[in-house]
Design goal:
The protein is built from 15 helices and 11 strands. By secondary structure, it is α/β, with parallel strands linked by helices. The chain folds into 3 domains: about 90 residues, Helicase, Ruva Protein, domain 3 (Orthogonal Bundle); about 160 residues, Rossmann fold, CATH 3.40.50; about 55 residues, Arc Repressor Mutant, subunit A. The strands form 4 sheets. Strands 4-5-8-3-9 form a 5-stranded parallel beta sheet. It has a two-stranded antiparallel ribbon with strand order 1-2. The protein has a two-stranded antiparallel ribbon with strand order 6-7. Helix 2 crosses helix 3 and helix 13 crosses helix 14. The radius of gyration is 23 Å and the shape is globular. The N terminus is likely disordered.
Length: about 350
């Protein structure tokens, strides 16, 4: 089987079914925190993140689900000047909408029914350290002005309170959504967007860093408590040949499932143990959309525009996503005035 990457061939050659795969040490391997990589995409990411970590600038991490945005939020904190202080996570999408304000900014006793005692919000708990606003794109629109005010004034007022409390926190945000598209759709405030966009760092998907799989697999197996498991060369090749729509999170889940099929006493993970789950078929999804009654040109223009937004203006990536040549995309951009 001919693998696309020479690095991958080098990594696979010494692997045998009779010995465990360990994270190889190569001249091209670099690390940041506890994260190791050989791919160029990750090396570039390491360089950017390490520079930003040493500052106090607000960082927004973008990328697909499962690319490790939470991991790099921790790295920014742990390698920065606030490493000895608190690291507080606030998941904007996990907290019920009616509790977001209280959990983020805190509340005073008696502020509402059930508020039997004063409560410190995430901002106060992160004092001196880092506040990680995960899934920032899910923050309710009506609370976005309060967050903007807190960031600009470096102070918060608890629900039911009458005084502002000064805060000293570093903000790291993350989202798998296109904030620019949310702004265009009036679902996210433009002023908050520009406040969070001081430094935007996009994490590459796993399909753009396949050379890192031989490094990732042993570490993920250790995380799963099965660091002794052996992988064959063909198993690694099978992992390398997947596009990984779910990224590193999907890889870990695939390994976790595969471990259930490893024969007791052998500890050998074979290709037949791997179970891949593909995302919904694009055609099935499109069949459910109300596309009927629209001119094809209008649909094509909308598809191109939305793909460009999702690709952050990268026309080569957009063309690949649309399944057309870049030259064809340029012709269509001219045709539709995009």
């Amino acid at each position: 089987m001919e693998l696309a990457s020479s690095t991958m061939r080098t990594l696979l050659r010494p692997v045998s079914p009779m010995r465990p795969v360990r994270a190889p040490v190569l001249p091209s391997m670099r690390s940041l925190g506890q994260t190791f990589a050989t791919s160029r995409a990750m090396h570039e990411l390491f360089a950017v993140v390490s520079r930003l970590a040493s500052t106090d600038v607000t960082v927004t991490l973008t990328g697909e689900t499962g690319t490790g945005k939470d991991v790099f939020a921790h790295i920014i904190h742990d390698t920065g000047p606030r490493a000895d202080e608190a690291f507080v996570v606030f998941d904007c999408g996990a907290v019920p909408a009616n509790l977001v304000e209280s959990e983020l900014f805190g509340h005073e006793r008696g502020a509402f029914t059930g508020a039997h005692a004063e409560h410190q919000g995430a901002f106060e708990r992160a004092e001196g350290g880092t506040l990680f606003l995960d899934e920032i794109g899910e923050l309710p629109l009506e609370l976005q002005p309060r967050l903007l005010r807190a960031l600009d004034n470096r102070s918060v007022r608890r629900v039911g309170g009458t005084k502002d409390r000064k805060i000293d926190v570093r903000i790291v945000a993350a989202t798998n959504r296109d904030l620019g598209a949310l702004v265009a759709g009036k679902q996210f405030r433009q002023d908050l967007y520009f406040r969070l966009a001081a430094a935007v760092v996009n994490l590459p998907p796993l399909r753009e860093r396949l050379d890192d799989i031989p490094i990732l697999v042993p570490r993920l197996l250790e995380d799963l408590g099965r660091g002794e498991v052996i992988l064959t060369e063909t198993t690694l090749a099978a992992l390398h040949n997947r596009s990984w729509p779910g990224n590193v999170r999907e890889l870990k889940n695939v390994l976790a499932c595969a471990l259930a099929f490893v024969e007791p006493g052998t500890g050998v993970l074979e290709p037949q143990h791997l179970r891949f789950i593909d995302p919904p078929n694009d055609e099935a999804v499109l069949d459910r959309l109300p596309l009927g009654g629209h001119a094809l040109g209008h649909l094509e223009r909308a598809a191109i525009r939305q793909t460009l937004i999702a690709s952050r203006g990268n026309k080569v990536h957009a063309a690949r996503t649309l399944g057309i040549a870049p030259s064809t995309l340029y012709e269509k951009l001219k045709k539709y005035g995009l």
